[in-house]
Write a structure and sequence with these properties.
CATH class: Alpha Beta
CATH topology: Rossmann fold
CATH architecture: 3-Layer(aba) Sandwich
Structural class: alpha/beta
Oligomer: single chain
Number of domains: 1
Bound molecules: zinc ion
CATH superfamily: Isochorismatase-like
Number of strands: 8
Number of helices: 4
């Protein structure tokens, strides 16, 4: 079965020195590049937020980063300002082999809603179009890598499994934020959704 590697948010702001740094995030870039040749297609996602994005703590009076607020679509973690459209932090990490990608999908560009998953925004309803792209190309087996393991990678993998794709996460090519045990709960939720962790 044709197989795609989906690289989630391998961007400067999610690596050490970035605005929302994930510990060791930069260390995955070499392994991710090495994996690319084993697939029929490579898709990169790019977190891509306007300045007034509602996931930024500093757009909410008095709110602390990493606190949670209720949005119309459900609970939302408030993050430090990151991956602002066109900013250096929104660029892909310089080591990532961007030229190999068949497709680059941007997400999180609507001010009022965040998008952890590459398939649905955080209301779990608004589609990004990625499912259609993969199905039209017959790419039904998907391996996920990238940042961060416990948010955008996990949400993407779980949605893909729910949509009927055969899904794995290659954990050594991911790194987690691990906010209040989020890494362990993401692993549990992924396994429950039928995602293979390898
Ligand atoms: Zn974001």
């Amino acid at each position: 079965m044709p197989k795609a590697l989906i690289v989630i948010d391998a961007q400067v702001d999610f690596c050490p020195g970035g605005r929302l740094a994930v510990e060791g995030g930069d260390q995955i870039m070499g392994p991710v590049n090495d994996l690319m040749a084993d697939y029929d297609a490579v898709v990169l996602t790019q977190d891509w937020h306007p300045e007034d994005h509602s996931s930024f703590a500093d757009n909410h009076d008095g709110a602390e980063p990493f606190s949670t607020v209720d949005m119309p679509y459900g609970p939302q973690v408030l993050w430090p300002r990151h991956c602002v459209i066109g900013s250096p932090g929104a660029a892909f990490h310089p080591v990532l082999a961007v030229d190999v990608a068949d497709m680059i999908l941007r997400k999180g560009y609507r001010p009022d809603i965040d998008s952890y998953s590459a398939f649905f925004e955080n209301d779990h309803k608004t589609r990004t179009g990625l499912e259609g792209y993969l199905r039209e190309r017959g790419l039904l087996e998907l391996d996920f890598v990238g940042l961060a393991h416990d948010f955008c990678v996990a949400w993407s993998a779980i949605d893909a499994a729910k949509l009927g794709f055969t899904v794995s996460v290659i954990e050594e090519a991911t790194r987690a934020i691990d906010l209040n045990g989020s890494r362990a709960s993401a692993q549990e939720n992924m396994r429950a959704a039928g995602v293979t962790l390898k």
